[in-house]
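User: Last request for today: this protein with 6-O-phosphono-alpha-D-glucopyranose, please.
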Amino acid sequence: MAAATSVVLLDRGNNTTCTINLHGATVVSWRVNNQEQLFVSKAAIFDGKAPIRGGIPVVFPHFGPWSYGPNHGFARVTQWGVEKRPERLPSGDVEAIFFCTDNEWTRSIWHYQFRLTYRLILREKRTRDMVIYQEGREAVTIGEWTDRIYQNTPQEHIITNVVSGRKMRVQKYNFPDTVVWNPWLDHSKDVPDLGEDEYPNMICVESGHVSSPVVLLPGTAFEASQILQGSDPYVFTYFFLGNVLMFFKCSY
Ligand SMILES: O=P(O)(O)OC[C@H]1O[C@H](O)[C@H](O)[C@@H](O)[C@@H]1O
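Assistant: Here's the final one, the structure of the complex with 6-O-phosphono-alpha-D-glucopyranose:
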């Protein structure tokens, strides 16, 4: 079947790229020095209907099973528009802005008007600071089926064992909660678009406003963002970092 989805590429020109599939504005690839940082299942479906299994989806307006509409809301299965094509900023960062608004289908599920604005910045910076990954907190290890919503978590998380044992830093702003999910072998069978051998190679860590809802009065806005920071150990002396900054703004 022909691909029912289209993508937008943010390219810094030195093998550092970020690919956004407009189906759900899902970040389906983030490559730092040609090394992929994100997990996308080999069984992921790109039919423009199913949510994409992996990458970075946008979950809105509901997290989890929803009696009114699709699991995790409709934003991840909606076709998003491009508000600003990828543009190189004076700093060298590449920025693009995506949006999604209510339509007849979303209003049939959730009778509100809204506009989501999603700003992505692909950033790369050099630093001599080799100690940014100091972990002073209790480590959460995953060795079995895990599906937890942690409330009021620290602003920063370090995910270890990402891409050949490296680390990824997540910094979140205005997202009080963190969800950690891995179906492990037992539950992988229930996830048809995830290969049964893939669970040891993925971990789903979601920054969110999950345990308590955000109530927006008409005309008001809610803003939140997260920064993902990965490292490239092949560059000596300097520590090379590629960031995806996600500014997520919702208003109605
Ligand atoms: O299968 P999906 O609708 O994409 O959901 C995949 C997973 O997402 C989250 O991490 C939830 O905490 C899990 O309960 C859920 O199973």
